[in-house]
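User: I'm writing a short report section on ligand binding and want a predicted complex to refer to. Could you take this sequence and adenosine-5'-diphosphate and write out the structure as tokens? A short remark afterwards would be nice.
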Amino acid sequence: MKTDTKHTTNDLLKTYFGYDRFLPNQEEIINNVLNKKDTIAIMPTGGGKSLCFQLPALALEGTAVIISPLIALMKDQVDALKANGISASFFNSSQPSEEQQTVLKNFQKGELKLLYVAPESLPQLNFILNSIKISLFAIDEAHCISSWGHDFRPAYTQLGNLKKQFPNTPIIALTATADRATRIDIANQLSIPNANTFIASFDRPNLYLDVRPGQNRNKQILNFLSKRGEQSGIIYCLSRKSTEKLASTLKAKGYKAEAYHAGLTSEERNTVQDAFLNDTTPIIVATIAFGMGIDKSNVRWVIHYNMPKNIDGYYQEIGRSGRDGLAAHTILFYSFSDIIMLRKFTEGAANEEYQLAKLERMQQYAEALSCRRRALLGYFGEHITEDCGNCDICKTPPKYFDGTLIAQKVCSAVARLQEQEALGMVLDVLRGSQNAQVFEKGYQNIKTFGAAKDISWRDLQQYIIQLLNQGILEIHFHENGRLLLSPSAKKVLFEGKKVRLAHINQEKNQVASEKTP
Ligand code: ADP
Ligand code: ZN
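Assistant: Sure. The structure tokens for the complex follow:
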């Protein structure tokens, strides 16, 4: 039986998709779905999520319903499936009603193996859903269901009823971005608490991670490009105006570059995008609107002209380079004035505090004094033990000292505070601050109170940020930014794991106090 299914999945992979082997985690995920078990699949962009529901859709009896928020991409995905001889359609509000009727008719007759539908349009299918065989529900971009995620879509909340309505139909939820708390929230919101979760590694070892001070960005970019020939790359900016300005600067220097942003007509955007895809315009200067779902494998570099507002977005955007597995270079320009601007953007937002906490983590990443990749992966809950050797810090490391004792004190304070307190309070306790909040909670009585009073507030703050970046501590973004101990913190506390800390130097302060250009 088992070998039989194996045989078929491999056959289907080859016959319909033309691939010889599975990418990491695909086979395990597919088998879980084929066993009718609920599944949460966390895979980085480019990890091959689509196959995880497309292949089971072919192997199982009935029609698979794919819920996807990206109406613009549905047609492309369906066309690709059709080109492989798979019967698929999509259903959303952008279609003329005649077309909608045809799709519904085919769906009802059970003629489709896959139907893509926008969450807003799902209620219109309700009648048919109850009358035909549904093989599985796939929920793409599943983080949209969590109000904790960075991309909440109210229409996703109704998906919580699917499991109650169809208890025997497997649900597979897929996303590329979800910190640990969001993952748990996805399972709760979808009422699939027993789902098996598969987390593919987020490591993209071929991406060089480079963070540079944001002074003279244009000059730095021109210098970088002068060594890059006609390579394809994307520069992300915060505003439409700066994309236009930078694109003309590059054009004036003889580069083939175009701006891309939401202010262009859809024809203009398509033209720019096509020219990028077929390499006639190798350089795109874009707002974050660019790149969602773009499958171009030979993007050789990505530059963030401005600070992204969180690590989730940053990771997705740099992830658009090097999808062919060959070396790609990413540069993040770090500027304090960007941070001030991004802080202003969050003002008045419903989840302002959460957004600020995420922004602060982004800033800490940019200020990291230890391997960037460890910091980046740690953010996604993945803890690697070796430095990567392929980031700016690994290439030119700062001076380190043995910070084991400091790390032990910090971790022990976090533990004694029951992982309930944020950075500020942990600092106060370690430094033995005699303030009202401390006394209110009786923290002056805990054992680590004042354990690091010999270290200045600022230095200690920087050391704790280093521990965050080394993945020894984590932040719970949804609950007041309280600090948590990661699995490696336990090694620090109980197994004598050595911790290296970098000396706090003056250079980083200069970046932090840089004036608006
Ligand atoms: P994601 O949705 O996770 O970003 P996709 O499903 O778009 O990823 O897949 C990314 C790329 O990998 C696509 O070009 C896809 O055709 C390709 N791909 C998927 N599975 C395999 C496989 N088993 N072998 C080779 N390439 C694959
Ligand atoms: Zn590194």
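A remark for your report: The mean pLDDT is 91. DSSP finds 22 helices and 17 strands in the chain.
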